[in-house]
Design goal:
Elements lengths: L10 E3 L2 E3 L3 E3 L21 E3 L16 E4 L2 E4 L8 H13 L4 E6 L4 H12 L5 E5 L3 E2 L5 E2 L4 H14 L4 E4 L7 H10 L4 E4 L3 E4 L1 E2 L4 E2 L5 E5 L4 H12 L6 E4 L5 H10 L3 E4 L2 H4 L3 H16 L13
Parallel strand pairs: 3-18, 4-7, 7-8, 8-11, 11-12, 12-17, 17-18
Antiparallel strand pairs: 1-2, 5-6, 6-16, 9-10, 13-16, 14-15
Length: 306
């Protein structure tokens, strides 16, 4: 028998068991339709969808993606067709696979977040990931996730309207990630995920202008991994709820760093654009490491670095 078949890779968050600790990072995998001919979605612990809003969002003007050293900048602007299309088109597709479904929720006001959470509470999904990096239009465009008081408030409001466990996706663009993680926990979050992209900029020196129409964008990819690992470690040691780690994961070794830092699950993002099979290869890399080290249960590795 293959030694990998004897490994216990299941992890549990908020009473939900995932067959392995690997999911996709929101915004990098759609709802899996673009990847299903390359990746066996049933192999993944979960699919985390692109952001879903109450009404369709057009996103930002182009150009809105730029390659950078060690990563990429994106200013897509959370473009999506809205919850009605998601429920009618995407959800039946995802339910045809043996994987958990985590729906990323976005909004411009607390009321929008809550309404989407209510709608999804009646759907066959497993968890909601609340993206609090969205600008709060009622507060002058300041992102919900940049102020601990707002983090706790929006978490508490969404929690009251959701019948599904909620994950709060934390912004790294803060002074102290531990403080915002604790605020999410205080608001009733079942888990936190981090990090979201780091705000960056690229200038086209030949045209002497900003390369992105939005001027700034979110930096992702290997360049941010050391920062992400550090923040996951800080968050995991600040809260008692599970942490989902992400930020520059390209292979199994990268994922293991996050797990050892305290992440119960990991999400693969930018790597999907370079290698459509990245998620499956990350799972295989984790399993190969466990077999080589004679570690039978993935939970032995979670937070093993102190």
């Amino acid at each position: 028998m293959d030694e990998r078949n004897k490994l216990k890779t299941e992890v549990t968050i908020a009473g939900i068991t995932f067959k392995n600790p690997v999911t996709t990072a929101s915004g990098t995998f759609g709802s899996g339709m673009e990847y299903c001919e390359y990746v066996n979605l049933s192999r993944l612990g979960a699919v985390t969808t692109k952001g879903v809003s109450l009404t369709p969002w057009e996103g930002n003007p182009t150009p809105r993606v730029a390659e950078t050293y060690g990563g990429m900048l994106n200013a897509i602007g959370l473009q999506n067709p809205g919850i009605d299309v998601f429920i009618k088109r995407d959800l039946p597709f995802l339910r045809s696979f043996d994987t958990r479904i985590i729906v990323n929720v976005i909004g411009k006001t607390a009321e929008e977040y809550c309404e989407v959470a209510e709608r999804l509470s009646e759907c066959d999904v497993d968890m909601l990931e609340i993206n609090i990096s969205c600008p709060n239009v009622k507060e002058g465009g300041i992102a919900f996730g940049q102020d601990p008081a707002r983090v706790e408030a929006i978490t508490s409001q969404v929690k009251k309207h959701s019948k599904k466990p909620i994950i709060i996706k934390l912004s790294p663009n803060v002074t102290d990630i531990s403080e915002t993680a604790r605020a999410a926990e205080a608001g009733g979050a079942d888990a936190v995920s981090l990090i979201n992209t780091i705000t960056g900029m690229k200038i086209d020196i030949e045209r002497m202008t900003f390369l992105l129409a939005n001027k700034t964008g979110g930096l992702s990819g290997p360049a941010i991994k050391p920062i992400a690992v550090r923040m996951v470690y800080q968050a995991a040691n600040a809260v008692k709820i599970p942490v989902i780690g992400m930020g520059g994961i390209m292979d199994g070794d990268d994922a293991l760093e996050f797990i050892m830092a305290g992440a119960t699950m990991v999400a693969v993002g930018t790597a999907n654009f370079l290698n459509p099979k990245a998620t499956e290869e990350v799972i295989e890399g984790i399993e190969a490491y466990m077999a080589r080290k004679n570690i039978r249960d993935i939970n032995e590795l979670i937070g093993c670095v102190r």
